[in-house]
Amino acid sequence: MTAPLLEIAGLTKAYPGVVANDAVSFAIRPGEVHALLGENGAGKSTLVKMIYGLVRPDAGSMTLEGRAFTPAEPRAARAAGVAMVFQHFSLFEALNVAENVALGMEDPPRPRDLAQQIREVSETYGLPLDPDRLVGDLSAGERQRVEIIRCLLQDPKLLIMDEPTSVLTPQEVEILFHTLRKLSAEGTAILYISHKLEEIRALCDAATILRLGKVVAECTPREVSAAHMAELMVGKSLAAPARAATPPGAVLLKVTGLSLEPATPFGTPLRHIGMELRAGEILGIGGVAGNGQDELLAALSGEARTSPGAIALAGAQIGALGPNERRRLGLLCAPEERLGHAAAPDMSLTENALLTARLRQGLDRHGFLNWNGAQAYAEQVIAKFDVRTPGAHVAARALSGGNLQKFVIGREIMQAPRVLVVNQPTWGVDASAAADIRQALLDLAQNGAAVICISQDLDELLEISDRFCALNEGRLSAPRPARGLSMEEIGLMLGGAHDMHEADGEMPHVPA
Amino acid sequence: MFRLEKRPMPSRVWILATPVIAVILTMIAGGIMFAILGQDPVEAIRIIFLDPLFDERFASFSRPQLLVKAGPLILIAIGLALGFRAGIWNIGAEGQYIIGAICGAAFGLAFYPSENPLIFPGMVLAGLFGGWAWAMIPAVLRTRFRTNEILVSLLLVYVAEAILASAATGFLRNPDGRGFPGSRNLSQHPGTDNLELIAGTGMHWGVVAAFIAVIFSYVLLNRHLMGYQIKLAGQAPRAAKFAGVNPTRLIVLCLGVSGALAGMAGLFEVAGPAGQISIDFNVGYGFTAIIVAFLGRLHPVGILLAGLLMALTYIGGELAQLMLGIPASAIQAFQGMLLFFLLALDVLSNYRVRIGREVAA
Lengths: 512, 361
Description:
Shape of chain A: globular
Strand content of chain A: 15-25%
Structural class of chain A: alpha/beta
CATH topology of the largest domain in chain B: ABC transporter involved in vitamin B12 uptake, BtuC
Number of helices of chain A: 16
CATH superfamily of the largest domain in chain A: P-loop containing nucleotide triphosphate hydrolases
Strand content of chain B: under 5%
CATH class of the largest domain in chain B: Mainly Alpha
Strand order of the largest sheet of chain B: 1-2
Largest sheet of chain A: 7 strands, mixed
Largest interface: A-B, 32 and 20 residues
CATH topology of the largest domain in chain A: Rossmann fold
Distance between the termini of chain A: 52 Å
CATH architecture of the largest domain in chain A: 3-Layer(aba) Sandwich
Helix content of chain A: 25-40%
Oligomer: heterodimer
Structural class of chain B: mainly alpha
Number of domains of chain B: 2
Number of domains of chain A: 2
Largest sheet of chain B: 2 strands, antiparallel
CATH architecture of the largest domain in chain B: Orthogonal Bundle
Radius of gyration of chain B: 22 Å
């Protein structure tokens, strides 16, 4: 057993209201590929930010090669031999590969020498990349290679990779893994952050599993099943739904063969999405961020139009209708991003009440706005959903995340929707507010509405959903009854180990 | 050290106080500049701000000028402010103003020498249409081909100026003018004239239109769905889309309204104070109105006051040139200071100034 390269002991970091890391300890040996596994919000990012010098720990110590390691900034971490490839790239599209690499270096060599070095590194590690190409012309996988090569040129001892495969095709993943194995064989340690279990089993020598900021387990991924890791990641104690099962009613929302090209180059295309939603039912849609959640919400809200027949509400084709026409018919949505999407930050709560409630609450007459009515409605939402604010005149940005989220969800629920679609309804919301929001969604379904809850929080989905399906690379799996769903099954659905790729171009999934 | 801390909500007090403070700071900084130029600063400031209104010798001439100059500024700025609030930047009001004037004048001259009372309303509509049509060029190019409306509308000003020159020397030239450039005089011909409505006030139909525009815009922004959508689109474009706002419609509407109002302002000017289409008919109202719109914080009432203030600095500036021999560029610098201080102080309504270092979190 060699001595550890990096040893972390009792690392703690607290933010107001949440302990992101609570006495986290683990060690990485040279040449080891070490997985850091956990759900969103488990504290993985905070931990690697501390290692990379972006965040200063409140308590605890780090030791690199036997010496105390306290990087004050990323530059210091890089100088000590720690390099990091971020999930989101920081590249200039108008510059070529070599120029982008040079921009990230402390002391870049002459351009011609650098291009030669890039070629050498790219050949050595099997990362095909031409230093003269414009970054704007590269695929996501090739852009990631630019970032990796930028790190490798610094000859790191420890390479941190944050969700590296989230933007890659399966073929690119193979190339990446080949490179990482070669680096590992040469003695470079790799800290690999992911929640794709099968990948971790294929690649990593050891795994540290974080849950709610604490290390809950360490394991050797090759020796345990993906299901076991998922169970460790999610936790075993799953709360029972707080309501009696009601027999599902008539089909309210039917989506068939919904495909949508993304509006932006960084969006995810939706592929053959099909689902059926019945009155009184909550459908939970799980998935890793960036797998089409925003796009699915936009397609349902009417911000993105589809072919008329792709979405039907109670039998009426609504795919080509805009947001307000869909609201009129009873399809309401609450997007993930509170400030700037669900609410206008600088507008008052009264003005924000008007944002979506105008039609169904009759807050205008011939285009003239009924401000008293809007204020009364905002005050109703504030009172019913216990929104902590001095009043309806306060700007949305002055509210805490949880309070604004209660307002946004309450604004939709109090309009008595037939179908409500929520994306990440409790993201960044404190525990008690989250419980209130979940109970409100349950009550809404109990009263005969249908709810789609898109979330990355598995606990939440299992707590409130009747059926569960996974969104993965813009494809929606067939739904399964949420009750009795095992962690292994969920892990496989989320990790993309199911056979959906073969379904490409074939018939869309027929909902059960 | 000083540092800025974002307020949870914009401060109402500061929103109202900053224009006043900006005017005072402009007086101080301008006074220093005038002193360096060898003038008595107090006298210069008095001549610019007070004499045009209260001095016996000048008031009878310059008081009416206040409305004559403020009218087009307010009318244009009201239209521009709607677009600016929605994040649609019409920088070419000057061009729309010129085309409006040409279209309106052409309509009136087409019926020359008729004195039918319907001609003037027709000219107003023609001016409105001309400005609207000129603004539709950037609107259509932006919505169809995603061009930048700032560049297109600005460059169209120079096209409009070329058309103006050819109108004054060609198709609208006065046939009885012995070959001099310039059209027939509209303000001296009954039926096409836009005269002072109340003697000694400078009030003409353009000023009336400006006041109506202020009221209309106030109601639109505060009471009507369209105004709400304009504000929403400017503050949070994604939320506006979520609320069902159609961005294409908003662009066409905002550019159209601002163009139409600028065109009307051009017509009122050519039929009244200017009198005729001439090569140098436009004097920059379309550009100054941009300053007026921001000086008035894009608020209708603010624009009304800002238009009057800006007109005052123009008249007072001319007076100061005349009386003290202050160079015209110094007056322009003075007006520039006003805008500078106003925008610089803007930060106070959204931020709080704290003294001392931030306590490490």
